[in-house]
Design goal:
The complex is a heterodimer. Chain A is an alpha/beta fold. Chain A has helices at 7-21, 45-49, 61-73, 92-99, 102-105, 135-139, 152-164, 214-227, 245-255, 270-282, 306-309, 313-325; strands at 2-6, 25-29, 54-56, 77-81, 115-120, 145-147, 169-174, 181-185, 198-201, 206-210, 232-236, 239-241, 258-265, 291-295. In chain A, strands 3-2-4-5-7-6-12 form a seven-stranded mixed β-sheet, sandwiched between helices. Chain B starts with 33 loop residues before the first helix and ends with a helix. Classes of the chains: A alpha/beta, B alpha/beta.
């Protein structure tokens, strides 16, 4: 049953499968019903599963999360949508202080099978608060799992794995890749567990680690570098918490060099954690220090400047060149 | 005794009917000169023109997005013209009419939607804070500003704008409590345009919004939001009350969002054209126009001049918008902090060097 799906559509199909599989699965969010979400990711789901299971909520994110926690205590499996990255902070307290800590607080008696979905990242010319990358806040919070797909196939499977997890999962959707297409076998089993990274391109000279929206940029960089005789291995992390360090480290042991790229600010970003871990594990194999490419320590700029803020192919290759120059 | 489920009072203050008949309201008398009436009409027409022009410019790709004010001009002009010098307005992203009244250059507002800036004007200079996109965030800020006015013994008030959707937000409700217990000189101005993107009013409330005020300890008034005179009268009175130390109030301007939520939205997915048509009969501009006519306060020359002014304005927006400079990467770094910051400075230097590398590469 292979279909050509955009990433947005693949997530939609994944949600549909989850709703079909388990009557306890509920969707909640703003404008997810009749409108189908501002990116149409939930298109048609309210029509098919009813207003009891696909719920348009009042405009109050803290309560979207709080109510999801209560529903989870009652045995439901809520999947909540926050409309944009920069709007999730309204719900931050419920996520960090309650959702993330409930299992530990209850000594394992209370499970929180809650999925928090939201689009993230820039590149679509949006207004303020609609282009942010808050993944490090969530990854830094014990009790949460954080995953992000880079392509429609992973999106289809990962969203179902996130929903099936008995832990709270933050599922981050790279919004500028919503329209990327791929062949998705909607009848197939997932190729990898939720927490695994994947080598998406093999290479020998340098390991390029990324996730979400930047994976495609890194693949394009690798293709461009091939012409110059540089062989780049690209690792798609897929899971940001926990990190599949083994896949990254195995790769760096082969190549001896590592560059990490993401949209978020590099200062205390995911790349800092990857760099530290790689340095600890691969100190003797490294030919050069782990380099980071990402956003600046400034607010995300007005959209007419975002091409400077977002690491592009050139900035990724510049880091690769610097890594090779050691 | 039966338990009352809701208050019964849902009167709506109106001073000018949709047919353009002036009606009296003992609680909210309004004294306006003929000049003021003409000026209000001019505001309405020009605000609608800015909105129409911006919508067209978005379609031409000159703006990334536009949030139309169409249908809400009276609410915004009525409230905006009730503010006096020294008052401070806290807007959402749709307050183009209030911005106009506060003397903010429409181009500055358009720049937000073009992506040349995230703000840029001086709140102090205009008595107009920056647009706030995160729903409800501006409400506690307005209360704090009003508390400052109170401490300074300034005879001014803050007015904060928000929507029916926003009325569900925690920060908005918290701000009601703060305003109440500190008796802050702040007027909450809710434009109930019946929609929060695709969600109808019923998803946010089971009672008329203005009635919530009493539960927080201050008065609430519902006003015909398409009646500029009523909006002006009620806003003036509530602001004056606040300035004199009588504390906060909530105004619910009952209106309708005639356009899409923004240019990215497709309202055909969730609402009926017939609803929109019904509200077209209550157009905020038409009733003033017909009143001015009936009272013989205007002649053909007035309308001709206004048409002219409106054309000029549109032209200056089109030209001005395309001429807006792109933001500079140096400003991005420079404005991140008020004081020097070593990390930002290092990143700024590194990025400048990186960009300079291209200049060298591309040199002949
Ligand atoms: C905290 C937050 N949640 C969600 C959004 C996305 N959003 C933008 S406008 C809007 C609806 C707002 O409705 P309302 O308050 O009635 O104002 P209106 O747009 O009708 O003027 C939503 C949900 C946001 N900007 N901020
Ligand atoms: Mg509204």
């Amino acid at each position: 049953m292979t279909e050509t799906l955009t990433m947005g559509r693949a997530i939609n199909q994944g949600l549909r499968c989850a709703l079909e599989r388990d009557p306890k699965t509920l969707l909640m969010g703003e404008d997810i019903g009749r409108l189908g979400g501002v990116f149409r990711v939930t298109d048609g789901l309210q029509k098919d599963f009813g207003e009891q299971r696909v719920i348009d909520t009042p405009l109050a994110e803290s309560s979207i999360l709080g109510a999801a926690i209560g529903l989870a205590m009652r045995g439901y499996r809520p999947v909540v949508e926050i409309q944009f990255d920069g709007l999730v902070y309204v719900a931050f307290d419920q996520i960090v202080s309650q959702l993330a800590k409930m299992h530990a607080r209850s000594a394992g008696r209370v499970r929180m099978p809650v999925t928090v979905r939201h689009p993230y990242g820039g590149g679509i010319g949006a207004v303020e608060h609609h282009s942010e990358s808050p993944e490090a806040y969530f990854a830094h919070t014990a009790g949460l799992r954080v995953v992000t797909p880079s392509n429609p196939v992973d999106a289809f499977h990962l969203v179902q794995q996130a929903i099936a997890s008995d832990d709270p999962v933050v599922f981050l959707e790279p919004k500028r890749r919503y329209w990327d297409k791929a062949e998705v076998d909607v009848g197939s089993a997932p190729g990898l567990p939720m927490g695994s990274a994947r080598v998406v391109r093999s290479g020998t000279d340098v390991t390029l680690v990324s996730y979400g929206p930047m994976v495609r940029t890194c693949l394009e960089a690798a293709a461009a570098a091939e012409g110059d005789g540089t062989s780049i291995e690209v690792v798609d992390l897929r899971s940001l918490a926990p990190l599949d360090l083994k896949t990254v480290i195995d790769s760096v042991r082969r190549t001896g060099r590592c560059v990490v790229a993401h949209e978020a600010s590099v200062f205390l970003g995911m790349s800092a954690e990857v760099a530290a871990s790689v340095t600890e594990e691969c100190f003797y194999e490294l030919e050069s220090p782990v380099l980071r490419v990402g956003g600046f320590h400034t607010p995300y700029p007005p959209s007419r400047l975002e091409h400077h803020y977002l690491p592009d192919l050139d900035r990724v290759l510049d880091a690769v060149d610097r890594s090779l120059a050691y | 005794m039966a338990i009352p489920t809701h208050a019964v009072d849902d009167t709506c203050v109106q001073l000018l009917t949709p047919e353009g008949e002036r009606v009296a309201n003992a609680d909210f008398p309004l004294d306006v000169s003929d000049d003021e009436l003409r000026a209000l009409y001019r505001d309405l027409v020009l605000v609608r023109r800015v909105d129409a022009e911006a919508t067209a410019l978005q379609r031409q790709g000159e703006l990334g997005l536009w949030a139309q004010v169409l249908g809400q001009e009276a609410a915004q002009v009525g409230a905006g013209r009730a503010l006096v010098s020294g008052d401070m307005a806290f807007p959402t992203y749709r307050e183009h009419g209030v911005a106009w009244c506060r003397g903010v250059d429409p181009l500055a507002v358009l720049g937000l939607f073009r992506g040349t800036t995230n703000g840029g004007w001086s709140p102090e200079e205009h008595g107009f804070a920056h647009y706030t996109i995160v729903i409800g965030d501006q409400c506690p800020q307005a209360v704090g500003y009003a508390m400052g006015m109170q401490h300074d013994a300034a005879e001014n008030a803050a007015m904060v704008f928000f929507g029916d959707g926003a009325s569900s937000q925690g920060d908005v409700n918290e701000s009601f409590i703060w305003a109440s217990v500190f008796n802050a000189p702040v007027v909450f101005f809710c434009q109930n345009n019946q929609w929060a993107i695709s969600e109808p009013l019923e998803r946010q409330t089971r009672i008329p919004l203005f009635q919530r005020a009493w539960g927080f300890g201050f008065p609430g008034v519902r006003v015909d939001g398409n009646d500029v005179l009523a909006c002006l009268a009620v806003s003036r009175q509530m602001l004056q009350r606040a300035r004199e130390g009588a504390g906060p109030a909530l105004i619910e301007a009952f209106t309708y969002r005639m356009g899409a939520h923004t240019t990215s939205d497709d309202p055909t997915r969730y609402r009926l054209d017939t609803d929109v048509e019904a509200w077209r009969l209550r157009d905020p501009l038409e009733r003033v126009r017909s009143f001015l006519h009936k009272q013989q306060l205007v002649d053909d020359a007035f309308f001709a001049e206004l048409d002219d002014e409106s054309e000029q304005l549109a032209l200056s927006l089109r030209d001005g918008l395309r001429a807006l400079p792109d933001p500079s990467i140096d400003d991005l770094f420079a404005n991140a902090y008020a004081e020097p910051h070593s990390l930002v400075e290092r990143q700024h230097d590194e990025f400048a060097r990186y960009l300079a590398g291209f200049a060298i590469e591309n040199a002949p």
